[in-house]
Design a protein that fits this description.
Length: 625
């Protein structure tokens, strides 16, 4: 045993004593108030709890100099004003039972006390029904009559003046201001019926008027794009209801800055919820892309504990599983519904995606480089990789939207040179065909079709991949993928690893509709393939599936890697670029897309089709100017 170095001085011990009240408050304040935005959050919570319909936030120097929140709520009676500043003083709960079923934003009774400990605070309030208003100075405790209508204004000046260490951690005014605005936005998105305005250094910087519709508030406080690029969510799962809007995959961003989740009106960040959202998007969003959403979960307050965190940003669900499931299903269902017609158009299609070389005035127009060729028409060399099955053969195409709309045939039609390929049918079919009637194939990559809104462009490989994927998935969800034996097994020279994987996965492969057995130590034989992929190259398919399986633990692969596996198989089985399709085949693909869930995106989250409206086409040709 070595002796302690003699240089350590003997511990100087102080007697145990209770901390002074002010220090207790300052320590407690550290938990609640991290920066100006925390004060904004607490004061807005109070204003909303008081039933405010209009809230005005005034800030100076990013909120460090001044935060004032004015509301027209019920106010505070004169004799309670001083009580409001005490620690653990609240009008919102009185018993443990109240706590367990609390429906207000606040209940801990510590915000005003905390703020008063670290800033200069004053409250001006007039209680509903009282004859006058009073102002309380938090420092001196002085109460004096003032003039104002019913409601409350809380003013907070010189935040952290008493705790300079905290003040040093603040960022620039601009950054603190941004956080304050975000805090107001979070409240505004929760309560569309309340009007909000934000002033900074004397200038009005945000104003969101009271709205009857949540969509309106989302458009005002986020953007019109947020609404245009999202789908409505409304789902009940057990005791949980989830409403709101979920962004289409196309609207995903690199940052998760448009993700708003509310539980009983309270903005929260919760692992269960974010995981549920993530898994709902797993299938349609690739890599690190962050979905956008504003979702509102309603649940019996007794099934969620909101008293987990001083700032109440975290919650704990009594049954995390039921919540996870409800959220996941809510989003999956919303995204899966094929969004046909106007609502379907991916919002990015609302900007023209063919970039016309719009000339500076007087310059000559250069045509967008679109070359139509007629040769794709022939079924001649289509090699049955993707035959339209008899039962999927398309019904007669509907009348052209342009004709239905009484418009002159578009000049687009002439160069297409597809005489006699468009038997006319009653316009009533139109409705049933959101993706319209195939016109031609472009560069062996795209299918062009017309619907009542204009031109549809389909990425045929991406679209077909989605269809095959969903088909395989539906089968696998049932039990296993329907397999089709090959008349003559396809053998191929395999690597030792491929042979080993085929042996290790002998039990798993049949669920994927595959039978791959060793033929010799260096040869594998493919004996059966999924019926859906029967027309593809069995060897290529076997190789890619074995490569995928080799990366996973064979026993759990179907559960854990199911989606990646199916995605590999689908990509393999989908019609390739440069494969020529007949119009019938193109129409069959369009009809399958309409019937397929999530057909708006391929499994990698890329869009499978776009709409170019007549209006956009007109703009391209400067018609109607
Ligand atoms: N804007 C307001 N309008 C009406 N009453 C308010 C307002 N702000 C605070 N109060 C009253 O002061 C009390 C203390 O507020 P606070 O410290 O934030 O605790 P809590 O919100 O948890 O009750 C509240 O319970 C409420 O009665
Ligand atoms: Mg409060």
């Amino acid at each position: 045993m070595s002796a302690l170095p003699s240089s350590i001085p003997p511990l100087e011990r102080r007697p145990i004593r209770e901390l002074p009240d002010e220090l207790i408050s300052q320590i407690a304040a550290g938990e609640v108030v991290e920066r100006p935005a925390s004060v904004v959050r607490e004061l807005l919570d109070n204003a909303l709890d008081a039933g405010a319909r209009q809230v005005t936030v005034r800030l100076a120097s990013g909120g460090v100099r001044l935060i004032s929140v004015e509301d027209d709520g019920q106010g505070i009676p004169r004799e309670e004003l001083t009580v409001a500043l005490r620690r653990h003083a609240t009008s919102k709960i009185a018993s443990l039972n109240d706590l367990e079923t609390v429906g207000t934003m606040g209940f801990r009774g510590e915000a005003l006390a905390a703020i008063n400990a670290i800033a200069e605070l004053s409250i001006l309030s007039r209680f509903a029904g009282a004859d006058g208003a009073f102002a309380l100075d938090g420092r001196t405790g002085e109460l004096r009559p003032v003039a104002r209508g019913v409601g409350t204004t809380v003013e907070v000046r010189e935040l952290f003046f008493a705790t300079p260490a905290r003040r040093k951690f603040l960022k620039t005014d601009a950054t603190e201001l941004a956080h304050c605005i975000e805090s107001v936005r979070r409240h505004a998105l929760a309560r569309p019926e309340v009007g909000f305005s934000v002033w900074h250094d004397g200038k009005l910087i945000e104003q969101w008027r009271a709205a009857d519709q949540r969509e309106q508030r989302l458009a005002d406080a986020l953007s019109d794009d947020f609404v245009a690029q999202s789908v409505a969510v409304d789902h009940v799962g057990g005791p949980v209801r989830v409403v709101g809007r979920a962004g289409i995959p196309d609207a995903a961003r690199s940052r998760g800055d448009q993700q708003f989740f509310y539980v009983n009106g309270r903005f929260v960040r919760d692992k269960v919820l974010s995981h549920a959202v993530r898994s709902a998007y797993e299938d349609v969003l690739h890599g690190q892309r962050q979905p956008v959403y504003a979702l509102y979960l309603d649940i019996d307050p007794s099934r969620v504990d909101v008293n987990v965190h001083p700032t109440k940003i975290e919650v704990r669900f009594r049954d995390g599983r039921e919540v996870h499931q409800a959220v996941r299903h809510a989003i999956e269902n919303a995204l899966a519904a094929p969004r046909a017609g106007d609502a379907v158009v991916p919002a990015s299609a609302q900007q023209p995606f063919f970039k016309p070389n719009v000339p500076a005035s007087g310059a000559t127009w250069s045509q967008p480089a679109i070359h139509f060729t007629a040769r794709e028409r022939g079924a001649g060399d289509f090699d049955a990789m993707w035959p339209p099955r008899a039962e999927e053969a398309p019904p007669a195409p509907a009348a052209s939207g342009w004709q239905a709309a009484g418009m002159a045939p578009s000049p687009f039609r002439a160069p297409l040179g597809l005489p006699g390929d468009a038997p006319e049918a009653p316009a009533t079919n139109e409705e049933a065909w959101p993706l319209g009637r195939a016109l031609a194939q472009l560069q062996g990559i795209y299918i062009l079709a017309e619907n009542s809104q204009g031109l549809i462009v389909v990425d045929m490989h991406a679209a077909h991949e989605r269809i095959v994927y969903e088909r395989l998935k539906a089968q696998l969800d049932g039990a296993s993928i329907t397999s089709q034996p090959l008349l003559i097994p396809a053998t191929f020279a395999a690597t030792p690893q491929e042979v080993a994987t085929a042996e290790a996965c002998a039990a798993v492969l049949p669920t994927l509709g595959l039978e791959i057995t060793p033929f010799s130590p260096r040869t594998l034989a493919v004996r059966a393939v999924p019926g859906t992929l029967a027309d593809g190259d069995p060897v290529e398919l076997a190789r890619s599936v074995l490569a995928e399986l080799a990366q996973h633990d064979a026993s759990s692969v179907v559960q854990r890697a199911q989606n990646e596996l199916l995605s590999t198989m689908a990509c393999h089985g989908a019609v390739r670029a440069n494969r020529k399709l007949t119009l019938d085949e193109m129409n069959a693909l369009l009809r399958q897309m309409e019937a397929t869930e999530r057909s708006d995106q391929c499994n990698h989250g890329r869009p499978t089709w776009r709409q170019l409206s007549i209006r956009e086409l007109d703009a391209l040709f400067m018609r109607g100017r």
